[in-house]
Design a protein that fits this description.
Blueprint (H helix, E strand, L loop, with lengths): L8 E5 L4 H12 L3 E6 L7 H4 L7 E4 L5 H10 L4 E4 L6 H6 L1 H20 L6 E5 L24 H20 L3 E6 L1 E3 L9 H10 L5 E3 L5 E2 L1 E3 H13 L10 E4 L5 E2 H12 L6 E3 L10 E2 L4 H7 L7 H18 L4
């Protein structure tokens, strides 16, 4: 077991979110000293139910507050920063583009500017997404492709990604960008996302609903593989071939939404048909979207450890236990 994270001062923005909570948990297991930026307080978040808030230092405030970020990085002598804070919902971004841009774009330049002025910080990983690529006719997405988001959420991710790279090229800030495919796993309490929604309906004895004909193609990455991706990238940020670079992280196994639905049903142990509703297909939805992780495998030695089948089995069991603890089954 590596001692890389032992006693390091680590700052995590977006720590109460799905990925942020499990990244924080893993950092604590690796004996890091974690400082979290926390804006909203959701008592159901696994950040709280796992008791993480009692084991770390908390800075209360938003990513839009540059002075707060400067103070946090300086006073806690932060060595490593994981910037995960974001408005992460496509539908919310379409309804509220300005607040999305404030959080995802301004928030990114704020943390990078605070990092640039820090005399302690040695590495920063900025989270973007496969959505930063926008629409391309050639698949899978590779890191050399242009970032060309069309809609508010995609545009915010394209901008955040490019801003992060600009801070390396202009100021030699020790930053790298992580572009992940769709994450899933136990602990995600956003039931507007398809896998949590499918699990919830199956546990309630209901058919999973597919909005559209189920032909949309996506790639999914299990949450433990996502956490490992961030840690692996940060640990190697002192290498010249890594610093300033974007990296894709995915499962490299794109599936149609109908295939994903059938795998979730299989994980539940049930025999049931999904409720396919072609008339509910979203306007403007990208038909096919998935990444190549070849660069991460080649330069970082990273690869996912969990198949979709195993990840979904673990995920379904987590939700079953969660709803049982809530007295809902």
């Amino acid at each position: 077991m590596s001692n890389f994270w032992r006693d390091r001062q680590v700052f995590v923005t977006g720590a109460t979110g799905f990925l942020g909570s499990l990244l924080t948990k893993k950092l604590l297991e690796e004996s890091a000293n974690v400082v979290a930026l926390v804006r909203d307080w959701n008592p159901q978040s696994i950040f709280h139910t796992y008791g993480l808030d009692k084991k770390i230092n908390i800075v209360r405030g938003g990513i839009e507050d540059l002075e707060l970020l400067r103070r946090a990085l300086s006073e806690f002598q932060i060595d490593t920063c994981f910037h995960l804070a974001a408005q992460s919902q496509v539908a919310v971004a379409n309804q509220s583009p300005v607040s999305t841009f404030e959080t995802n774009i301004r928030g990114t330049w704020n943390i990078l500017e605070a990092a640039r002025q820090s005399s302690w910080l040695k590495r920063i990983v900025v989270a973007t997404s496969d959505k930063a690529y926008g629409t391309h006719t050639k698949l899978p997405y590779t890191e050399e492709m242009h970032l060309q988001g069309d809609h508010p959420y995609e545009v915010s991710k394209s901008c955040a990604d490019l801003i992060a790279q600009s801070y390396y090229h202009t100021y030699q800030l020790p930053v790298a960008v992580a572009r992940l495919s769709n994450m899933y796993g136990g602990g995600d309490l956003n039931f507007l996302r398809i896998i949590p929604a499918f699990c919830q309906r199956l546990i309630n004895g209901e058919r999973p609903i597919i909005n559209g004909d189920g032909s949309v193609v996506r790639d999914f990455l299990y949450i433990e593989d996502a956490v490992d991706a961030y840690l692996t990238l940060a640990e190697q940020l002192d290498k010249k071939e890594i610093i300033g670079q974007p990296f894709n992280f995915g499962n490299d196994s794109p599936l149609t939404l109908l295939e994903v639905t059938r795998l979730v049903i299989k994980a539940s142990g049930q025999e049931i048909e999904p409720d396919v509703r072609p008339e509910l297909k979203r306007e403007g939805e990208i038909q096919e979207q998935y990444l190549s992780s070849a660069k991460a495998k080649r330069l970082l030695g990273w690869k996912p450890q969990f198949s979709m089948e195993e990840g979904l089995r673990r995920t379904y069991n987590w939700y079953k236990n969660f709803f049982a603890s809530q007295g809902k089954i």
